[in-house]
Design a protein that fits this description.
By secondary structure, the protein is of the alpha/beta class. The chain has one domain: 3-Layer(aba) Sandwich (Rossmann fold), CATH 3.40.50. It is 34% helix and 33% strand. The protein has 6 helices and 9 strands, in the order H-H-E-H-E-H-E-E-H-E-E-E-H-E-E. Strand 1, helix 3 and strand 2 form a beta-alpha-beta unit. Helix 1 runs parallel beside helix 4 and helix 5 runs parallel beside helix 6.
């Protein structure tokens, strides 16, 4: 799948540059909210974990156990150095093979829009499967429907978004209950955010 190769090669190339320019505190409010909804010492899956900062690092400091998955070896290498207490695995969110009811929480932020939009429902259904009953999901994605390739830190990068309405429909179709949904401005960018419960 050329999209996956593009995303993987892109992040392998730009990993250091990307993190140098990224605001690593822009969604601390959402991470704080999620950490209050999860059981103490609970297991969280960080999907599209990147270099482990901020999500894995923040949640581990809150006493949670974090497993991060990403398709970029370079990002995972950085994550292992940045967050030695976490577990980081090369895995594609389209092929998640964890057991049913494995995690208390799943967080996938700034990642879903690298997966073809027609696959998003499949992703949410697998998130539902591997979450424990009452498990919490946090995702974000773009604010309008689009698909294409653009220059990102000097490399071609694939993007794919459904409308917020379609994303919300998919989450509901996957049997989640909605705790929060809305467009939020974080770090100067607008994204559509959902917090949901199994």
């Amino acid at each position: 799948m050329f999209e996956k190769e593009m995303v993987m090669n892109g992040y392998n190339t730009i990993a250091n540059d990307y993190y140098t320019h990224r605001d690593l505190n822009k969604f601390n409010e959402e991470l704080e909210k999620i950490s209050t909804l999860l059981p103490g010492g609970g297991r969280v899956l960080d999907v599209g974990c990147g270099a482990g900062i901020p999500t894995a690092k923040y949640l581990i400091k809150k006493g949670l156990k974090v497993t991060g998955i990403d398709i970029s070896d370079k990002m995972l290498e950085m994550a292992k150095k940045n967050v030695p207490e976490g577990e980081f695995i090369n895995k594609d969110m389209l092929h998640i093979d964890f057991s049913d009811n494995s995690f208390d929480g799943i967080i996938s932020v700034y990642a879903l829009f690298h997966v073809p939009k027609e696959e998003h429902l499949k992703v949410f259904q697998s998130f539902y499967r591997i979450l424990k009953p009452n498990g919490i999901l946090l995702i974000n994605t773009g604010i309008s429907e689009s698909e294409g390739v653009s220059n990102f830190f000097g490399v071609p990068m694939f993007w794919s978004n459904n409308t917020p309405e379609k994303t919300l429909d998919y989450i509901k179709e996957s049997n989640f209950s909605i705790i929060f949904d809305g467009v939020l401005r974080r770090g100067g960018e607008y994204q559509y955010w959902i917090i949901a419960k199994k």
